[in-house]
Structures are given as structure tokens and as C-alpha cells.
Amino acid sequence: MLISHDDIPQVSQDFMNHTHSEEVTLINALFTEILAYEKNQNTTDTIDTMYQAWIEHTIEHFTTEEVEMMEAVFPAYPIHKEAHDTALKQMYEVFNAWKETREIKVLKTYLIEVVPQWFMAHVSTMDAMTANYIGGSITPSGAGMTRF
Ligand SMILES: [Fe+2]
Ligand SMILES: [Fe+2]
Q: Is Transport a UniProt keyword of this protein (predicted)?
């Protein structure tokens, strides 16, 4: 397991916690398949399908948060949106590098060294503040938003 569900930072909006939990399940499942692939226990097709499913879930995840921010007129929307766009771009870049090279190390390194750290930092800062704003528990300054 790459990320423990118990370690996911909880925010004040349940729909976001639910999505984050689903995302961690997909990341962990992909990581398991990456380790299996290293031992020649599955195929590139399996990895491709799971990675594609993770991308699709991430798009849905990010879009839902962005719509909520727009509806709530969240002042830090551009910063949060930019963080989503950058993360998604990197997901595609890594996926493309994997499809070009079929070097499993490309995926493994990304999943170990980038994804968990990014996910934890993003959820505990931008998502947490966004959830509080949507819930009406913070003022619309956007102060304290850091770029993760
Ligand atoms: Fe999120
Ligand atoms: Fe987010």
C-alpha cells in the first residue's frame, strides 16, 4: 500500500473526503499493479487501463472542486485551479513517458516520490481551505493559501 486511508487529511466537506478516499484506492491499486508488473505478473495493458482510470477520476475530482469554488465565488480559485492543472499535466506527461519507453521505473518513481507528497500537501492546504470556505467558516481573503 502506498498511501494509508488513515493518513488522508480530512476536510470539512464530506463529498471531498469521499473523493479523496476513492482516489487513494485507485493510486494504491495502480501501485500494486506496478509492483506486479516488475515481477512479470501482468501486462502493460493492465497498467494503462488503471492509469487511465486514475486520470479520469482525477479530472472528475478536480472539476467538481472547481465548480464548487466557482459557485461559492472563492477568491483563491485561480491558485487552486492552477495547482490542479499543473498536477494533471504532470500525470499526462508521466503517462506519455511510460507509453513511449515502457520503463516501469518512470511510473514507480512518480508514484513513490511525487504523488503521495503532492496529494497530502494539496488536501491539507488548498482543499482544506476550500472546504472551509464552501462551508462558510472562513472569510473570503484567501490568505494563507500556499501552492501545492
Ligand atoms: Fe481534492
Ligand atoms: Fe483540490
A: yes
Q: List the one residue out of 65, 72, 63, 66 whose CA is nearest residue 134.
A: 72
Measured in angstroms, how far is the CA atom of residue 87 from the centroid of ligand 2?
Answer: 10
Distance 54 CA to ligand 1 centre (A): 14
* Ligand 2: centre distance to CA 7 (Å): 17
The rounded Å distance from CA 62 to ligand 2 centre is 6
Query: Please, where are the H alpha helices in the chain?
Result: 14-38, 44-72, 77-101, 104-113, 115-122, 128-134
Global pTM reads 0.91
Domains of the chain: 19-134 (1.20.120.50)
Please give the distance, rounded to the nearest whole angstrom, from the Cα atom of residue 112 to the centre of ligand 1. Answer: 19
pLDDT tens digit string along 64-115? 999 999 999 999 999 999 999 999 999 999 999 999 999 999 999 999 999 9
Q: Half-sphere exposure (CA, 13 Å, Cβ side) for 29?
A: 15
Task: Give the residue carrying C-alpha cell 479530472.
Answer: 59
